[in-house]
Specification:
six-stranded mixed beta sheet, about 850 residues, Beta-Lactamase, 28 strands, about 45% helix, six-stranded antiparallel beta sheet
Length: about 850
Amino acid sequence: MFPILVRRLRQRVRPLLHSRRADLLLLFVPLLSLVLFLGAAAALVRYTQQTELQRENDTLQRDSEWARQRMSLEMALMQEQLQSMANSLETRRGNERFPAMAGAFLHQHAPAVVVYATDPDGKLEHLLMGSAVPRDLSWIDTQHRPSQPMSLQLQLQARQRKRPVYSLPYHLPRLGWVVESATPVMLGSQFAGTVGAVFSIDGLMRGTTVQELSSRYAVALVDRVTGDVIANTATGDLARKPLQYVVALPPFDAGLSMRVSSYHSAPGWTVRGLYWAVFVLSALMLWMQWGSWRQMRERLQAQESLTRETAFRRAMENSLSTGMQAIDLKGRISYVNMAFCKMTGFSEHDLVGRAPPHPYWPARRSAEMALALQQTLDGLAPPSGFALKLARKDGSEFDARVYVSALIDNRDRQTGWVTSITDITEPTRIRQELAASHERFVAVLEGLDAAVSVLAIDRDEQLYANKLYRQWFGASAHGHHLLSGQDAPPGVGVDGDDAVDSFVGLPADEFLHTQAQVHEIHVASLDRWFDVRQRYIQWVDARVVQMLIATDVTARHQAEDVARNQEEKAQITSRLIAMGEMASSLAHELNQPLTAINNYCSGMIARLRNRSMPTEELQPALEKTARQAQRAAAVIRRVRDFVKKSEPHRVACRVQDIVQNTLELAEIDLRRRNVRLFTHIAAGLPTLHADPILIEQVLLNLLRNAAEAVDKAGRSGVLRSIELDIAQDETQVHFIVRDNGTGVADEVMSHLFEAFYTTKSEGLGIGLNICRSIVEFHEGRLWAENQYNGEVLSGSVFRFTLPLEPTPRSGTAPTGAAPRGTDLPAAPEGAPAAPDLHTSP
């Protein structure tokens, strides 16, 4: 069975070994990837084990240090109590209290089994033993001294060092392993004895800290001198466990240490799951490798079939007499057939991969060829094709007709363009002869009411000028440059070796776009306005030339001037209408200061007649009368300045002054309608270059319309108010007027700024139209939009902007605004609004 499998494997692998190097890479790279994957998986498993072991070791060390700190804290507390008992022996009363203190110490601390006190000679003065100590324990000799050598040694060390000392672990019969401490009793600088305590190591093991630690680890107390285990919480020997941590046990650092061992076991199901995952993934990779081998064999068969089909198509393309060329989306040549190579004389090696300019482009027609290539790449090639002149390798030129079609790949994506080139030298000669017979139609151009001029852009030579052009500008090219708004180019010498230099500096964008350029220009020498249309065309000799058609539009400009004057008059009329509507309120506004003047004068006359008015009271009364007269004069002056303003005049003005003057006029109508005005003006607004009276007219119109909308909607309370917000951004100042009216209907919104369109029964329909004309004269924008509270229409917002630095422009008055829609985008809000600076009732 196995030899049969080997033979079949050889049969499948043998064709692959004869394939190309790229195919071999595709074959063996997956195998190499599989080996690397297995190695990475094994390393990952090993790394996981090491990480788990390190994490357990870190946890073991952290818990051991925590237990060490707890036990150190407990021993420090016991030492403080022993020191307190030693201090109490310095007095007689403390000597009497020692048994009670020692008994409380033994009762409070389970590890302590014996507490005693000695005099300077080592004789026992007090001795208390815990309940766990056998009563017949022979621990005291006949001289009433501790019989253990360790106790005598501790007393000597305490006397020499004059500080608490601790012993090494030692074994007491019937009590087990213990450690002992000795605390010196000092009377001034004299040694007066010791206070000793014996601690059971088993008691230390039964402590709370060790019990908590032993629930997770095996804890053993080890003699640091001999290395023997004195006490252990585990039944077995855990000395060879891989995870252990040994820490000194204070204050017995010199003789006692604690060893904590982890119950580390075999790898869990997680690690075993990783092993199984590696095994399954390895089997899957082998199966995929086998599938890749099968796919490689099928691909080689398909590649052989494709090679045969490609050779067949290549033979068909080489048999054609029409040249074929393929370019990518950037104009780089990707394919040429044999017919195109024979047509141009260049080999396939010379053409494939070349970027523009291509080798077969005539040097003196580079601009024309670049224009044709750009139109091809833009998809603007005419269906009838291009008629171009191409250059052969020997330098000769021939006429060719080029047809373009899109090159689509198997995914329906365009990857370039395919051009078919046909030699049309003979048909071009016949067409040129026919074109000569059409020159008689040039006479038609002589009868036009427009000036027609054609200029050769490479030589600055006027090729054609009709009769009307010659009447106005003569036969020179000066008039052509004057109408086009361009200076005459400097003289350029034509180099026979590099004729493309004659096109340097020309507007390349205008070559690539076939639309005519339209502009208006004023010729001062003729005092006429011309509507000029110019474009680049191909002349009869295939050169690129500039054609210009200029129509006299002086009459239209004169009509626009008349309309502008009418617009100015309409502005004055609008202001007069506003003052007429405010007449009754204005009378009430003037009546207040006049009534005050009358009252002051009558009062002063009456008191002067009665001789009851002192001289010192006469001056304040006269000053109040003068202020009321000045108030009435200011009202009249504001109205007069607002009404008589006619000629627009831009000056440097402050936004705050414009708002203040407008509010002085608007407050009359606001009080009459009982509408409150909230004004928010951003801090630090710059100075504007504008006509303040015209801007005041716009603001006054918008504020009056907003107040009328609120009054008409019948709002009450807080809603019976309008807002004026003024902010700025980097380039312009924003004026925003919000009302709480009923909003603007959609059918009205589209005609809102049209002249003579109004929804008021007594309105003229010119207010908003004039406002937009004024704003556009200042190079700003005015538009309206509705505001919503959720989905409920809650009013309308009128916005207009003024630039911080207006661009220079001709003219002094705003022209009439043509009807426009209201689909302007909302301008940004600009800087945050400042607190209320002005509130009008």
